[in-house]
Design a protein that fits this description.
Strand order of the largest sheet: 1-2
Distance between the termini: 30 Å
Number of helices: 3
Order of helices and strands: EEHHH
Helix content: 40-55%
Number of domains: 1
Strand content: 5-15%
Shape: flat
Length: about 80
């Protein structure tokens, strides 16, 4: 995402929180992954890549990550 690329992610763990207009969220079977790849090939790579980069810039700057890390340390 930070490289400005679209994402294909399986719907496990917290992945659903990171794929919003910047890629495709799919299941974990071979056929679901195949479908996501085929869908990606027909999608607007540039737009999704720009959205990936925007998400990272907005929510994951070094300052924000450092502040979140300090918050966790302070809670402990």
């Amino acid at each position: 995402m930070a490289s400005g690329l679209p994402v294909i992610a399986t719907d496990v763990g917290d992945n659903k929180y990171y794929v919003h207009g910047n890629g495709i969220l799919c299941g974990t079977t071979v056929n679901e992954l195949k479908g996501a790849i085929e869908e990606m090939l027909c999608s607007d790579f540039v737009r999704m890549g720009m959205e990936s980069r925007r998400i990272v810039e907005r929510g994951y700057s070094w300052d924000k990550i450092a502040a979140r890390t300090l918050d966790v340390y302070n809670m402990v």
